[in-house]
């Protein structure tokens, strides 16, 4: 599954590598009580962990889909910008976002990544509304969306069981595949940053995720998470046959803030010589679901999604006015770095 670095590249600032727990997916599928209890503990304490997929059935392996999607991304993102702009997103959940669309970490700066989104509702829409490249690989994207959704819902089911939730309150009930939602697959490319520019470039500003569960694959360094104990940034190492999972805002709110969502960001790596690619699936609640958000307001999942998405676009000054970007978590450093 791609080319994994076996050691940490040279990095400025002596940023440590996070020691994230690992959850075994096969054990969750087998309803192993100890593994489900471990998942709940990890989701309460860290909110970030590895999901070991190595024991999956080879014929249905997620990693096989991931390799195919990486190949698609390297071809699609290396097209001329004018071609990619033909697929410019017209809504929140489908299409292309160019570099610089969102605010960056410093006043007056913009983000340093581009993305292509593919949603469940988009892939099922008439072909005319789907980018031609996605149409040509429709079977692949339909299969992976189904697979990623299944993984995320299995995590919700295990968390519900370990939490002892009654049937009506189980987390997966708020994420019905038959209901309208903003769940989406996002393909991200962080272009190579020359060494002279790396000290003032952050590919993706600090934030918490909008939705409930994020299923992320990357085979390159760059992701950082805010450590709960030290409130310092730590590198998240890429691991073969493992997804990186994190709890998002919506699941935190649905759990009455029992479960933990974490600040994270993406930064350039010293010695980086190529673009960085990431495949992220965001499971979000049904649009009609409601909860109390970070500002204490009673809102629907649709409202939280739309408002937070617009906050990413806002200026740094506007972002600092409320708690939406960081999901109600206090930033570790006032400057945002």
From TrEMBL:
Keywords: Iron, Metal-binding, Oxidoreductase. One of its GO terms (molecular function) is metal ion binding. Pfam families: 2OG-FeII_Oxy. Residues 180-285 form the Fe2OG dioxygenase domain. It comes from the Eukaryota. The keyword Metal-binding applies. PROSITE patterns: FE2OG_OXY. InterPro entries: IPNS-like_FE2OG_OXY, IPNS-like_sf, Iron_ascorbate_oxido_reductase, Oxoglu/Fe-dep_dioxygenase_dom. The keyword Metal-binding applies. Belongs to the iron/ascorbate-dependent oxidoreductase family. PANTHER family: 2-OXOGLUTARATE (2OG) AND FE(II)-DEPENDENT OXYGENASE SUPERFAMILY PROTEIN-RELATED. This is Fe2OG dioxygenase domain-containing protein. The lineage of its organism: Eukaryota, Fungi, Dikarya, Ascomycota, Pezizomycotina.
């Amino acid at each position: 599954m791609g080319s994994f670095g076996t050691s940490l590249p040279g990095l400025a600032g002596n940023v440590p590598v996070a020691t994230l727990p690992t959850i075994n997916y096969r054990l969750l599928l087998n309803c192993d009580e100890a593994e489900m209890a471990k998942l709940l503990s990890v989701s309460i304490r860290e909110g970030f962990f590895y999901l070991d997929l190595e024991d999956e059935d080879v014929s249905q392996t997620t990693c096989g889909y991931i390799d195919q999607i990486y190949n698609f991304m390297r071809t699609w993102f290396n097209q001329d910008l004018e071609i990619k702009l033909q697929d410019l997103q017209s809504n929140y959940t489908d299409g292309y976002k160019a570099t610089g669309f969102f605010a960056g970490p410093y006043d007056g700066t913009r983000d340093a990544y581009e993305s292509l989104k593919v949603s469940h509702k988009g892939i099922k829409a008439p072909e005319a509304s789907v980018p031609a490249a996605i149409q040509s690989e429709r079977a692949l994207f339909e299969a992976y969306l189904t697979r990623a959704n299944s993984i995320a819902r299995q995590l919700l089911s295990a968390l519900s069981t370990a939490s002892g939730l009654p049937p009506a309150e189980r987390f997966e009930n708020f994420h019905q595949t038959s209901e309208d939602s903003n769940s989406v697959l996002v393909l991200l490319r962080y272009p190579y940053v020359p060494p002279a520019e790396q000290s003032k470039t952050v590919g993706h500003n600090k934030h918490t995720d909008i939705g409930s569960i994020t299923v992320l694959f990357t085979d390159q360094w760059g992701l950082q998470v805010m450590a709960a104990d030290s409130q310092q940034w730590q590198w998240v190492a890429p691991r073969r046959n493992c997804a990186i999972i994190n709890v998002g805002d919506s699941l935190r709110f649905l759990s009455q803030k029992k479960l933990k969502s974490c600040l994270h960001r993406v930064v350039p790596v010293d010695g980086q010589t190529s673009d960085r690619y990431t495949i992220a699936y965001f499971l979000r609640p049904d649009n009609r679901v409601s909860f109390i958000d970070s500002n204490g307001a009673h809102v629907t999942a649709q409202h939280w999604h739309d408002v937070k998405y617009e906050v990413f676009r806002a200026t740094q000054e506007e972002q600092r006015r409320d708690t939406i970007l960081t999901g109600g978590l206090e930033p570790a450093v006032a400057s945002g770095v």
